[in-house]
Amino acid sequence: MSLLGRCSKRGATVHWPLVKSRLADAAAKPTGRPKALIRDEIVALTEQALAAAQAAGDLPQFATPEITTEHPARPEHGDFSANLPLRIQGLARMKAIAVAEALQRHVPAHPAVDRVVVAPPGFLNFYLAPGWAAAQVDTILAEGDRYASLDLGVGKRVQLEYVSANPTGPIHVGNGRGAAIGSALANVMAAAGYEVAQEYYVNDAGTQVAIFGRTLYARYEQLFGREVEIPENGYPGEYMIEVAKLVKERDGDKYLRPPGEEADPAFGRIGLDMMIEGIRADLEHMGVTYDRWYSERSLMDEGGPYGEVMALLRKQGQVVEREGATWFTSTDLGESKDNVLIRTDGQPTYYATDIAYHYDKLVKRGFDRAIDIWGADHQGHVSRVKAAVTAVGGDANALDVLLYQLVTLRRGDVVVPLSKRAGEIVTLRDVVDEVGRDATRFFFLLTGANQTMDFDLELAKKQSDENPVYYVQYAHARIAGVLKRAVDEGHSPDGADVSLLVHDSEQTLLRKLLLLPEVVEKIVEELAPHHLTHYAQELAGAFHAFYTQCRVIQADEPALTKARLRLLEATRVVLARTLGLMGISAPDSM
User: 156-173, pLDDT tens digit by residue?
Assistant: First the structure.
């Protein structure tokens, strides 16, 4: 499927009042600010055609419906297609094809539109003017690394919380998918105008942390020759031995107590801090950084969110004592069952601390929107967290939860076990070290979060067109090479007449460049950053086809050479912008 089809399979429904507002805002902005999408202008033309046809009596009067446009899958059917005639034929009491013909006669002239064609059974197909498309090269270059920036989220604060793996073990390859999704989504939302805060929620309290401390102390004792077993349900991985060695190397026997005695409570915290720093380093190795590492323990501070939430729920009568535990009466809010907040041992559940954390996000800190990115095994947790957000005074609609499916690691046709041996896993660092940061991020973004994915380590290392990240990065490097050669040979794009860009492959490439703002908008609306990898491959493909069919540097065609160099400059900008949104480098050589 072409990118045109992929970017708008279901069509784009646009509210005309919003379109008019965006067009007005864009017109009022100073030069260099993001402009309204050309798609929105096509929608506006369609709406104006309907109003004019009704005013002329060619169509009867009725309320204007939502306007829908899409990119046809086949380029010969135009750049944009409106199915309005099919949707209003009943209101008009006319066949859709006749409605389309009536609308066609009233579409206002626009510099971006070359022609509007009626197509059976009732479509209006818009074809962009080649000269207008070519002129967008200068617009792209003027916007530079701000190209495809939008104002969807201007004045709004959004918090993204992702990965948040328990610090009782190293971060594994499965967590890497959430890291790539969250990091890329944060980049795109910032490009769309949001003020973005990225957080890692550190589960540094509770039962698992206590078990971690006991396991680490047993390993520490073993290093001093004591014959002790790790506790039941402890962590058997060899990484625990490595952490114990680090503590011993740093502090010697400082924490060693007489045989049979429990460790100093501070001992487990030291090991946990080491694990957290390891996780931080592994994520940074993949190019993922956070604005805040939020400690679960801090929720419990005196006067903190946990105490406030429990007091609020009790005051509202939404807490009951039953079976020795404390329960949240979530059935009153439509949930299928009540949920435990405090266990019989007096310890809060993960659910209780999650309520406090979301209360802190949406009520105390006042984010306009919060996005949690969780593994698919947390699906059952979504509705009850939303119910709790409502109970503590937050807006459940301001919370989005994006679930991602499992990763299967492969070497060609051979599946790589994610557990190498008892207690050992394939870590994220293992993968990044083997295939590199760029390939790791790109491959994790190749499929939608709701689909399971295969990560082929061998393919990710290939330096060939079979490897999608290599294919895209090579396009950027190839452009850089041509531009350098042009400088060496005394050619410059200065003063280029871009109206000369009329070849089919030139026009195809131009139209691909114009799609990135729509891709950014689509990702924000769907929380689906995998669209970037699809777009990047389509754009690289359009460039490689252009490069094959159109010789760029021609000594006997200086005007055309200038125009094509200008096109290459714009393509380089858009490729670099696309890769940057994914957190991937744009190399000048490979």
Answer: 999 999 999 999 999 999
